[in-house]
């Protein structure tokens, strides 16, 4: 029995499936591969059945977004380890084994992120995750490998294994039992930053999160919602504040929210001008 499930969430992404699924199949011999389909209205399901018969399909009965989409689809997936992979991820040879080694040897480690490079510029890190995620005192997430919009070139500087605050949802490994014990992603988020919230909840229970730079994937990014999309901007601001309310200790919350509202106001002013 294979211990890991590679799970891709799809909604009307037939073009991405045709482009990126072949690398997943080619380099994931250790895994069972699933596509959770969020009630696509394009040819996704028929293409999967015809062109990728080795892939198992889980069909949701609605477009539930990222959080509920995964929560619903994962109910019937029983492998001990899950690799939740965006449909716009290209993977590389031997990407699974370094992460499986950690999961097998370190029972306290439950969430892992690989190195995430930019599919469009493969010499550089990609914005969504890069060399591993952290959070500052105001609750703003950041990554090794990027400062604001400045992205570092990959020169092997993050070919390490280190503890993280959060792992990117673009390529997110988690023990199945931990995912389910945390009730999965918070469905109120719909999309964006739900993986940070889940990681924060895990850390509050002393569950360890790690980055493994010995595994590499390439992320196209922006394939579902463009970075300038107003809905994406709204979800990022709203979900970030929601996450603070949920996870920051009560004695610190008022002060953190006060400064965040000021800083978010400045950011909103810049966005609309």
Q: How many strands appear in the DSSP assignment?
A: 14
Q: What structural class do the secondary elements suggest?
A: alpha/beta
What portion of the residues fall into strands of 2 or more residues?
Answer: 25-35%
The amount of helix comes to: 25-40%
The overall pLDDT, averaged over residues, is 87
Number of helical runs?
Answer: 8
Q: Could you give the distance between the termini?
A: 56 Å
What does this structure look like?
Strands 1, 2, 3, 4, 5, 6, 7, 12, 13 and 14 form a 10-stranded mixed β-sheet that branches. The protein has a two-stranded antiparallel ribbon with strand order 8-9. The chain has helices at 14-26, 44-51, 65-73, 97-105, 176-181, 194-203, 230-247, 250-271; strands spanning 4-10, 31-38, 56-60, 81-85, 89-91, 109-118, 121-125, 133-135, 141-143, 146-147, 150-151, 161-163, 171-175, 208-219. The protein contains 8 helices and 14 strands. The protein has 273 residues and is of the alpha/beta class. It is globular, with a radius of gyration of 18 Å. Helix content is 35%, strand content 27%.
Summarize the structure.
By secondary structure, this protein is of the alpha/beta class. 35% of the residues lie in helices and 27% in strands.
Key descriptive features of the protein:
two-stranded antiparallel ribbon, globular, 273 residues, alpha/beta, 8 helices, 27% strand
Explain the layout of strands and helices.
Layout: E1 4-10, H1 14-26, E2 31-38, H2 44-51, E3 56-60, H3 65-73, E4 81-85, E5 89-91, H4 97-105, E6 109-118, E7 121-125, E8 133-135, E9 141-143, E10 146-147, E11 150-151, E12 161-163, E13 171-175, H5 176-181, H6 194-203, E14 208-219, H7 230-247, H8 250-271
Parallel strand pairs: 1-2, 1-4, 2-3, 6-14
Antiparallel strand pairs: 4-13, 5-14, 6-7, 6-13, 8-9, 10-11, 12-14
Helix pairs in contact: 1-2, 6-7, 7-8
